[in-house]
């Protein structure tokens, strides 16, 4: 398989292929586990068909939620979005013309007020009076969710809701989450975030019992190397490239990605992009090294895809203590 691409045509052809690669969805345990848990929280018709109605618990007084907890780059956001947008009963409400779910990503630093305003914005309310109180905003949020027939409220990057909070602020955030799953307009709350989210949810027994937790496992060298090699081959086939699986390429890719599924895909697509730009017909370890190294900012000797001792390379060394660094700098200036 040889590509004859003119310099003028290469960028355009590569861009089309790259766009196609980014639209590929690879089924994985995140999506399957989330869909399974979501279906268990939706009511069913007599024939077993899911309905756009949350199951009620505790004498029909409250709903339940799902917490998807994984390190950044694992692929949880893509998995949740794919399940929700692919659901026949949640992707479209014929009465409103909008989905039956709301997705909001937490902006840091987050407050109850900023989160409420963000949810209202996603439901079509662009202006909230500057002097509106937190209580007034959240009363409007609950009214708006009920008015639009929202079944699922998905809060992404939810760990930022609790970062650097005082005990009282933390307690208020947790009470807010509980309130969304109570009353006539209760919804299924989906939280997605990093490990910090797990500790916060478990810190309050009432919140903890209301959430089903999904912790996708990390990819492991050896156990998952063959599957990762198949995944890379799939993307190469789609791009019209051969792949040189030499020097433990799949295992190196797992290590370079810190075992995170989403990063495996991102690095593979970036590497293919470099191969296409240079008109190569084979994806090599050097393409991976260039793509990954550009993101990591590492030296060639510390590049997982070319180093002989790649498995021993520490990808996340302790960060510099800026306070100590400033102290040393100030000391040198005083000595001058």
Automatic annotation (TrEMBL):
It comes from the Bacteria. Pfam families: TniB (PF05621). This is ATP-binding protein. Keywords: ATP-binding, Nucleotide-binding. It comes from Paenirhodobacter populi. GO terms for molecular function: ATP binding.
